[in-house]
Design a protein that fits this description.
- The structure is a homodimer of 439-residue chains.
- Helices cover 35% and strands 25% of the residues of chain A.
- With 439 residues, chain A is of the alpha/beta class.
- The first copy, chain A, folds into three domains: 171 residues, Rossmann fold (3-Layer(aba) Sandwich), CATH 3.40.50.720; 161 residues, 2-Layer Sandwich (Dihydrodipicolinate Reductase, domain 2), CATH 3.30.360; 85 residues, 2-Layer Sandwich (Alpha-Beta Plaits).
- In chain A, the strands form two sheets. In chain A, strands 7, 8, 9, 10, 11, 12, 13, 14, 15, 16 and 17 form an eleven-stranded mixed sheet that branches. Chain A has a six-stranded parallel sheet with strand order 3-2-1-4-5-6, sandwiched between helices.
- In chain A, a hairpin with a 2-residue loop joins strand 9 and strand 10.
- Chain A is elongated, with a radius of gyration of 24 Å.
């Protein structure tokens, strides 16, 4: 209906909620459109209404004052708005987006929390109202990973997926690996550089990456999990020393978001991981993101690029706007159908059942029988040891760090072992575990 | 018209020309479709006719004998075929594909030579007949680079594009860098492994990569060039020794396909290039392909994966088939419009006008004044020297290799200098140039 009223010759009325970093980037890309955009027959956007937090703030690029409102609901309700672009990241986004969908308006959003936690409701709402909801910008900004999974790799079963999905933590780990200091030092540096928020919790805890992984899992595996179902461990406990040991073993440490098919369910976890130093993901530095996808037909593919920032994120938003408009101009139906989890929906495997290799580091008193004690605990948990590093040179006032790398073991067994080792007399301080992924 | 007759509930009649490696891969992917494919509402393919070279050859997967023909024209003409998939790579492909388009039938092809050399005619034909022509598999097999450039990055001006687009040569260079021998040794190895053809000319000369680059340039830059307009130098002259010197300077040698915007024209060239060893492209090993795209909004992005092979290539073919069907099922018009080069078409810059850095290696007699003589020639051509390597240890029977790395210089000047240096008395044998790219 709406499409017929619109015809192909009229511009699409766009309502923008949020004119912050990304929103102003979108306006800039539309105003200064490259030839690739201008050539697209049906692409003709008219900005009809823009919700901002403060009407009086000076803005660049400048917008006609009559476009602006402080009330996002006005943008959604405006009859001249056919396409709502939500870029606030704020909690009321759910209300605005769901109201737009109820009215049959298409929505583009960059809001990962919204998608990860309430995607199910929104997709149902979109389908019921013949509207579409696109969200490429919600994961890895301008890297076209969502459309690649949905379209380019449509003929593949995704077998696994490894992502560096958080630029802040990748920047921090890169700086640590280059000798810029320990966790607190590089966090401060990231904050000074604008890569980390004053409250860095979402990033350093892994929650940001977990939400993005939940979104990817929905597309790649038809998985029901939300961000809260993804096992999540942050980088707060990583020390420079761990990075040095990793290097000695031929590994780099990255905050990885990992998802794998496993007997009809999906492993989904975010944690610091040791990855072989010649793997492409080990060579993704600074604030860059990357996703390695293992497809049943294509084998391993890697997509890398900037995972945040004004124009990289705006690029994904505009790509979604273009796809929506072309689909609508063609009288096409919504594409949201394949996002609805039907009978083939799969659940997340509890972390305790996941198997992988582990790096364990403990500080022990330099006395006979220590290694035997630890080895006995691991044997009791049926965990087998792949290698051990203990060096005289690391001796510090009666103690030495002892590093053990295991073969594949169940997480539950490893956690038992970790607790048991911590109770040994000769063990001082925490028993540190870092999971390993051979990619 | 055709779409109405078809309706959304009838399968799409597919005609396949070529049932070799890739063709049988496509049949396999369709027969054993993953859930992602089965979920797509409009995706219902029926194989109606298949052209093969030899009717009597046993085949797996098996096909009903009545589907098979030795006459490709029958496939195109079959009224039950709406979608023609051309996978022969043979020269008559132009006739088959153009006839299908004339009949308003959509075509998917993996034929890079066809696209690179005669794309213009085919796109015009497709547009004139309301048909569509898709070709993701023609470049880098299953890596979704063409749809990423057209859709995911639509809001970007592509500033530059660097590709490892030929798996055979990347395998050979990787093997040389790992000490597996010199050019002839690794060529033989690649042939034994099935990575190189008995006649390896298309691969080792760079022509295969040049054709792929021409296709990418059309999409990324709206560039008129064909494969023959791309400057092309192969890897035949690369020796292990060059790779060793490169490593000493912190570089790897890759056969790069390079395209850059330059004042309204496009540089387009394929040649061995020294790239910094910590660049992602330097870490693309064995038979893998990768493309690094610099977008005006997203910055640098890298896409990597297998660039050849049965299922990786079939994956791209099936993705194109799905996109076509979904577009048609929705009553959508052709998407071919933006492939037609209009007033904003750009030409290729002659190689002589391109500027870059160079690695020059000569064998010289160990006598006074040699370096001075070479330096004078470079100075006359206004080429400035960045570094020099000459080592006592490399002394061989009165001669030493001398390596010079230049700052940025014009190709024409460097070719002049190369000729002049070769005439010097103290210089023995060829003057080798390897271009450098700092990515």
């Amino acid at each position: 209906m709406r499409n017929k009223e619109l015809g192909n010759d009229m511009p699409i009325g766009v309502g923008l909620i949020g004119l912050g970093t990304v929103g102003s980037g979108v306006v800039e890309l539309l105003q200064d459109a490259p030839a690739s955009l201008r050539r697209r027959k049906h692409v003709d956007f008219a900005l009809r209404r823009v919700a901002v937090r403060d009407l009086d703030k000076p803005r660049s690029p400048a917008l006609a004052p009559e476009l602006l409102t402080e009330d996002a609901a006005e943008v959604v309700a405006d009859p001249d708005v056919q396409l709502v672009v939500e870029l606030t990241g704020a909690p009321p986004a759910f209300e605005w987006v769901s109201e737009a969908l109820r009215q049959g308006k298409d929505v583009v959003t960059a809001n990962k929390a919204l998608l990860a936690e309430r995607g199910e409701e929104l997709f149902e709402l979109a389908l019921a109202n013949g509207a579409d909801l696109m969200f490429e910008a919600s994961v890895a900004a301008g890297i076209p990973i969502i459309r690649s999974l949905r379209n380019g790799l449509v003929a593949n079963r995704v077998e696994s997926l490894y992502g560096i999905l958080n630029g802040t933590t990748n920047y921090m780990l890169t700086r640590m690996s280059r000798g810029a200091g320990d966790y607190a030092d590089v966090l401060k540096e990231a904050q000074d550089q604008g890569y980390a928020e004053p409250d860095p919790t979402m990033d350093v805890s892994g929650m940001d990456a977990a939400q993005k992984l939940a979104i990817l899992c929905r597309i790649a595996f038809h998985c029901t999990g939300t961000g809260r179902d993804v096992f999540c461990e942050g980088i707060e406990q990583i020390e420079s020393r761990d990075i040095e040991y990793a290097r000695e073993l031929g590994y780099a440490i990255k905050l990885l978001a990992i998802a794998k098919q496993q007997d009809g369910r999906v492993e989904a976890r975010v944690h610091p991981a040791m990855v072989p130093e010649d793997a492409l993901l080990a060579n993704i530095h600074d604030e860059f993101n990357a996703i390695q996808v293992q497809g049943s037909a294509v084998g391993p593919q890697v997509f890398s690029g900037r995972g945040a920032g004004r124009l990289p994120t705006a690029s994904a938003v505009v790509a979604d706007m273009v796809e929506l408009v072309e689909r609508k101009a063609a009288g096409a139906s919504t594409s949201i159908g394949d996002m609805i989890l039907g009978e083939d929906a799969v659940a997340v495997v509890p972390i305790e059942d996941v198997q992988m290799r582990y790096f364990m580091r403990v500080l022990v008193r330099d006395q006979p029988g220590v290694l035997a004690g630890i080895a006995r605990i691991l044997a009791e948990e049926r965990i087998s040891i792949a290698s051990v590093i203990q060096k005289e040179r690391d001796f510090e006032g009666g103690s030495v760090p002892l590093v053990i790398v295991t073969h594949e073991a169940r997480e539950a067994a490893m956690q038992q072992a970790q607790q048991a080792v911590a109770t040994l007399d000769a063990v001082q301080g925490a028993v540190k575990l870092i999971r390993m992924e051979d990619l």
